[in-house]
Specification:
single chain; 204 residues; 70% helix
Length: 204
């Protein structure tokens, strides 16, 4: 079972990397691409972060080592982020213009991988119960990301998602409300992630 889980994680991670690379190449073939814009989306960063932690978890398994407490916390945070990616996209952004141009890559990044990552966390019990006193760590990355987005929106005018555009009605007040909504959503999903870490369905 351990080998199966490790190989499965590496296979799905390779698929996600392929989707990101294919999207980058496709975008670059049609226009000059700004890497800071391309990788500035929460979707891209959330997928990359989750791939990294799953690959590290797979390597730990293949090497016969237990995952460190730091890696398990990182997995909990990453699972939260990628779950939010799937929820926000499918509830608010699906069907809007822009985003990932390749249909198959879009499905991988916004649907397939979020579902897989959540199932991986729920089903495979190779993680200890995450300490509740560390749950605040899940908000550090989204806070930094949001600050960068706001600064960029105020300077060069680029924003990754329309609900973070200060040009919308209400300006930065509306952006602030959405920012609070993002923080609350991530916090709620994190509570679920932390709670599930106390349940083991498949021993690995």
């Amino acid at each position: 079972m351990k080998l199966f889980v490790a190989v499965l994680r590496l296979a799905i991670s390779a698929t996600v990397v392929s989707a990101i690379v294919a999207t980058f190449v496709d975008t670059a073939s049609r226009a000059t691409i700004n890497p800071f814009n391309f990788f500035g989306f929460f979707t891209m960063q959330g997928n990359i972060i989750t791939v990294v932690v799953l690959v590290l978890a797979a390597f730990a398994t293949l090497a016969g080592r237990r995952q460190s407490e730091g890696l398990q916390l990182a997995r909990g945070c990453a699972t939260t982020y990628i779950a939010v990616v799937g929820i926000v996209y499918n509830l608010l952004l699906a069907g809007l213009e822009g985003g990932v141009s390749l249909a198959w890559a879009n499905s991988v990044l916004h649907v397939v991988f979020p579902i897989y990552a959540v199932l991986d966390w729920v089903l495979f019990g190779d993680r200890a119960a995450l300490p509740w006193r560390r749950i605040w760590l899940v908000l550090i990355y989204p806070f930094v990301w949001l600050v960068v987005v706001i600064v960029r929106g105020a300077t060069d005018g680029w924003v990754p998602y329309p609900f973070l555009d200060p040009a919308q009605p209400g300006g930065y007040g509306t952006v602030a409300l959405f920012g609070v909504g993002i923080a609350v959503s991530i916090g709620l999903v994190a509570v679920g992630t932390w709670a599930i870490s106390r349940v083991r369905i498949v021993a690995v």
